[in-house]
Amino acid sequence: MPTGHPTDRTGPPTWQGTAARGAGPSRRRVWPAAWPVAAVFTLSNAATPLYVLWQRDIGFSKGTLTVVFAFYIVGLLGSLLVSGVLSDRLGRKPVLLPALALGLAACALFATADSVAALIVARLLTGIAVGAAVSAGMAAVADVAGADRRRLAALLASCAMVLGAGLGPLLAGVLADVAPAPARTVFAVETVILVSAVVTVLRLPVPRRVTGARGPWARLPRVPREARTLLLTGVAVFGPGITATSFVLSLGPSLLADVLGTRSGTVAGVTAFVMFLAATGAQAAVHRLRRATVLAAGAVATVAGMGALTVAVHASSAPALYAAAVLAGAGQGLGQLGGLSLLGHAVPPERLAEANAALNAGGYLLAGTLPVAAGYLSDAAGPTTGTTVFAAVLTGLALTGGVTVAATRRQLARHG
Questions:
Q1: Has residue 4 been placed in a domain?
Q2: Could you tell me the CATH number of the domain that includes residue 330?
Q3: Rounded to whole angstroms, how far apart are CA atoms 292 and 299?
Q4: Which residues span the domain enclosing 97?
Q5: 129 to each of 15, 74, 174, 354, how far by Cα in Å?
Q6: Is the pLDDT at 16 greater than 60, yes or no?
Q7: Which of 16-20, 79-83, 93-97, 287-291 is predicted with the least confidence, judged by mean pLDDT?
Q8: Residue bearing the bigger pLDDT, 145 or 416
């Protein structure tokens, strides 16, 4: 007999399987479900320490660099328009496997890139793969975990995202300094990682789809009416947090070179890794706290990070820049965990992938615009001015997120 939420021919899909019934598999089966998310996010930032090398070899400005980075956001947002709905209707595997194939194609392009166009296409394909990972991949973790392990599922999915995002630039940064052909070496290793993710997806014990809903297959991702305030609150904190980390990823290596005088790929990679390690540690430290507290802490961390970033560029201070990266990572991690956890608690399983897509679409839309503007302003007025203006704008947005959490605290309290 089908299990899950009741449905009819025009209603949402129903799911069968142990996880859908909430019986809950062993924890050992939940952990591997997060590996495809980590693998795709390793690809997402693997190019970060290599941008300085490509700028030198191909020749392009900081503004062009942020445009290359932004095409990742374009691909991701386009993917979120369809991947959440497709995953909820067709299942997680039919979305994840093609996405991993696109990730493998991106690896081939990055490894052989000799033009800005090649980098743009590679970033676009990477964004599409990541869009599927944050919708179908994170929902698959929740499916395998079951209804009785929602907090564990949110924590694992979120940590897989930030750990992968940090491992990519760390690996690439070290290889950029020691390998004779760093791009080819980095993306050969990433190819192996993605192939292992394909094997993992094929073995995932995710529930199978029973019936499908009607309606457009491509649409702006959304959540049930009763969860809209929760979604907006999550975006208000997660958006500024992920915009801060996107700035560090896109302009961080150039900032290290221009302001602090180092072009080391290892330094750039370690900076990004520490940023996402902070995101992981922050999530592990607070995941048992109330969700409103987690979100408020995320807003505070982002504000503090922007203060440290401003000090870094005006005082040419390496410690302040590293502090900014750590605080930015904490801000993203806490906002992401709070948002995912709220949606996992409030949204039924057959709408969860689309809900995850909605949260990430809201966050990445901001992350795809402000760093680009900061890059072009840095070209025109210098990195100190560009970074200062960016930090001021993002501080205002993060404070708005904190006010939003305070205004909705009573509603948030009903969800733990």
A1: no
A2: 1.20.1250.20
A3: 11
A4: 19-205+225-413
A5: 24, 12, 25, 15
A6: no
A7: 16-20
A8: 145
DSSP for 356-376, please give it. HHHHHHHHHHHHTTHHHHHHH
Q: What is the distance between the alpha carbons of residues 220 and 132, in angstroms, rounded to a whole number?
A: 14
Phi, psi torsion values for 209, nearest 5 degrees? -75, 140
Task: Phi first, then psi: give them for residue 15, nearest 5 degrees.
Answer: -120, 145
Measured at the CA of 257, the angle between CA 256 and CA 261, to 5 degrees, comes to: 95
The answer to whether 350 and 4 have CB atoms below 8 angstroms apart is: yes
Look at the block and give the residue holding tokens 């192996």.
192
Q: What are the tokens at 106? A: 């991106």
**Mean pLDDT, to the nearest integer, of 355-360?**
83
The values of phi and psi at residue 3, to 5°, are: -120, 170
The C-alpha angle 279, 137, 249, rounded to 5 degrees, equals 40
Measured in degrees and rounded to the nearest 5, phi and psi for residue 16 equal -115, 155
Indicate whether 10 pLDDT > 60.
Answer: no
Lowest mean pLDDT among 122-126, 151-155, 398-402: 151-155
C-alpha–C-alpha distance, residues 371 and 95, integer Å: 29
Contact 58, 262 (CB under 8 A): no
| 386 in Cβ contact with 378 (< 8 Å) | yes
Does residue 26 have a pLDDT over 60?
Answer: no
CA-only gyration radius of the chain, Å:
20
Give the best-scoring range by mean pLDDT among 138-152, 223-237, 394-408. 394-408
Q: What count of Cα atoms within 13 Å lies in the side-chain half-sphere of residue 301?
A: 32
Q: Is residue 81 a part of any domain in this protein?
A: yes
Does 65 have pLDDT greater than 70? Answer: yes
Taking alpha carbons only, the member of 163, 405, 116, 416 closest to residue 280 is: 163
Strand partners, 395: none
User: Dihedrals φ, ψ of 208, to 5°?
Assistant: -100, 150
> Which region among 15-24, 95-104, 111-120, 191-200 has the lowest average model confidence (pLDDT)?
15-24
Looking at this protein, which amino acid is placed at residue 179?
A: A
Residue 383 buriedness (CB in 10 A; 0-12 / 13-18 / 19+): buried
Place of tokens 């009819």: 8
Q: What percent of the chain has pLDDT over 90?
A: 31
Asked whether residue 214 is assigned to any structural domain, the reply reads: no
Domain count along the chain: 1
Instruction: Answer whether residue 11 is part of any domain.
Output: no
